[in-house]
């Protein structure tokens, strides 16, 4: 059983958090210029289908969404049932670290774009991270992009961990609690808390240079592009319940980054 099997019915609390709505806008601005009519899209770590549904809202009509947790996929099937019934969506239970084809005909180089929201951060080491990139490269057409949301890219993860243990970060959700550095020196363990009721899960935050090295070793020889998280207007400051000074701290220490890797 994955750590998400028991969270499938409560995980959507994530989508009610103010930061999540800013994340959606960040992702839309990064992804929308890359979308084309009729393109085949692959999504990894689709969870309960939050981004799956949004990709259809953004014009995608042929999508394969993958997750390791069957209970999560069951929730996604409920959310996107009309797309499944229309034949536009396939849900696949699989481990994204294991090299395999996700194409309906099991071919390679099938998809025109791959997307993973909080997928790469489940790699516990560089070898697993490299395997994730290799899996995406096998499934993508030459020159196609893989767009991933990861913790803010930095090579000083330890300093970030110290910052996130202080106000305002230690009273905001999702709350990031950095545990301990990896023995390899590649990153830190990162426990994510979604609320005060014990909804949490374990991830890992690798250094920026580790993401980039793993992408190259995994088959992405094209451009690597990082997009920094941008915050929306002051209305969101009030939704986060932050002072002006705290909002500036939040802006200087982004929650996430978006990596676009081209095969």
Automatic annotation (TrEMBL):
<dbReference type="GO" id="GO:0032259">
    <property type="term" value="P:methylation"/>
</dbReference>
<feature type="domain" description="Methyltransferase">
    <location>
        <begin position="41"/>
        <end position="143"/>
    </location>
</feature>
<dbReference type="Pfam" id="PF13649">
    <property type="entry name" value="Methyltransf_25"/>
</dbReference>
<dbReference type="InterPro" id="IPR029063">
    <property type="entry name" value="SAM-dependent_MTases_sf"/>
</dbReference>
<keyword id="KW-0808">Transferase</keyword>
<keyword id="KW-0489">Methyltransferase</keyword>
<dbReference type="InterPro" id="IPR041698">
    <property type="entry name" value="Methyltransf_25"/>
</dbReference>
<protein>
    <recommendedName>
        <fullName>Methyltransferase domain-containing protein</fullName>
    </recommendedName>
</protein>
<dbReference type="GO" id="GO:0008168">
    <property type="term" value="F:methyltransferase activity"/>
</dbReference>
């Amino acid at each position: 059983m994955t750590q998400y099997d028991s969270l499938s019915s409560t995980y959507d609390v994530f989508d009610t958090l103010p930061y999540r709505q800013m994340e959606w806008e960040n992702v839309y601005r990064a992804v929308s210029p890359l979308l084309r009519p009729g393109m085949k899209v692959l999504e990894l770590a689709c969870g309960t289908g939050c981004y799956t549904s949004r990709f259809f809202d953004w014009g995608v009509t042929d999508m394969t969404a993958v997750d390791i947790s069957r209970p999560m996929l069951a929730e996604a099937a409920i959310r996107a049932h009309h797309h499944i019934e229309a034949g536009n969506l396939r849900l696949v239970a699989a481990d994204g670290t294991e090299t395999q084809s996700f194409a309906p005909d099991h071919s390679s180089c099938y998809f025109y774009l791959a997307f993973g929201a909080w997928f790469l951060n489940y790699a516990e080491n560089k070898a697993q991270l490299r395997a994730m990139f290799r899996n995406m490269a096998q499934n993508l057409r030459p020159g196609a992009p893989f767009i991933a949301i990861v913790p803010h890219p930095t090579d000083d993860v330890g300093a970030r961990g110290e910052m996130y243990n202080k106000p305002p970060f230690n009273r905001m959700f999702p709350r990031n609690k950095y545990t301990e550095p990896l023995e390899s020196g590649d990153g830190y363990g990162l426990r994510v808390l979604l609320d005060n009721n014990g909804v949490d899960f374990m991830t890992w935050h690798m250094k920026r240079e580790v993401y980039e090295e793993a992408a190259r070793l995994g088959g992405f020889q094209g451009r690597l592009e990082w997009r920094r998280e941008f915050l929306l207007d002051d209305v969101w400051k009030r939704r986060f319940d932050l002072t002006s000074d705290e909002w500036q701290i939040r802006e200087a220490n982004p929650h996430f980054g978006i990596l676009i890797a081209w095969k």
